[in-house]
Write a structure and sequence with these properties.
single chain; 242 residues; alpha+beta; four-stranded antiparallel beta sheet; 4 helices; 34% strand
């Protein structure tokens, strides 16, 4: 069971970085999360700091994904920062301009969404062997979906009547999901702490969005190595498929 009373130590900003806000959260500070991701941490940190415009960070979520395009490795980082009144979303991609890899550019976008505008926060869980579930079993993966602008995703597939011998055309069926951003975090790929961080962030976002008190701070779950890879898709993504 999670310890509801333990408090993580107050993290110190890394040398050379001028963030002065209270960027501490469940497992590690925002600076530490960016350093661990290792994707231009000082650049990303400065852009996020500028987007916060002096606001204090209540919770954060840093998600790095890696894609392989032939012989080229492409990375994308998403940083979510929650304040009292805003959800700040930052996306960063890099691109190699020459074959030698000497010329690289970073493409960065930030979006600030008023918390009051957020319509839905969905946290989906996946557990292995549910028939043997115990309260101490870790979540295998979580998917965090946040909607605020009415963006919708449509999943369509062939319809069937349930008869395996039937060859008739039953048309198509599908589902419509409202979402502006989706982050899928796996304990196998990202580590147990990353899953706990996503759960904490969702609780904090729900609390601020509904005007409730902030969620109790949980002690970090058992740590494990977490190579940063995952699946990400949203209306702002540039070619990143789920």
């Amino acid at each position: 069971m999670e310890d509801m009373t333990s408090q993580p130590p107050t993290p110190q900003p890394h040398a050379g970085h001028h963030l002065v806000h209270n960027h501490k959260s469940q497992g590690q500070s925002l600076d530490q999360a960016l350093e661990r991701a290792g994707f231009y941490p000082r650049l990303v940190g400065d852009v996020v700091d500028d987007a916060l415009d002096g606001r204090d960070c209540l919770a954060h979520l840093v998600h790095l994904e890696t894609h392989f395009d032939r012989a080229e490795v492409r990375r994308h980082i998403t940083v979510l920062v929650l304040t009292d009144d805003m959800l700040v979303i930052t996306h960063v991609d890099d691109q190699q301009l020459d074959e030698a890899g000497q010329q690289i550019v970073a493409q960065i976008s930030t979006e600030s969404v008023p918390v009051a505008q957020i319509r839905s926060v969905v946290l989906s869980y996946m557990y292995a062997q549910p028939q043997n579930y115990k309260p101490t079993d870790p979540v295998r993966e979580v998917t965090l979906s946040i909607a605020w602008s009415g963006g919708q995703r449509i999943d369509i597939g062939p319809a069937s009547c349930g008869d395996p011998q039937c060859e008739a055309d039953h048309g198509y069926t599908g589902t419509i999901a409202q979402e502006d951003i989706v982050l899928r975090i796996s304990s196998e790929a990202d580590g147990l702490q990353a899953v706990q961080d996503a759960k904490y962030f969702a609780r904090a976002l729900r609390a601020v969005n509904t005007g409730a008190s902030a969620p109790a701070r949980h002690a970090p779950a058992m740590s494990a190595p977490r190579p940063r890879t995952g699946v990400f898709g949203n209306r702002l993504s540039r070619g990143h498929q789920r």
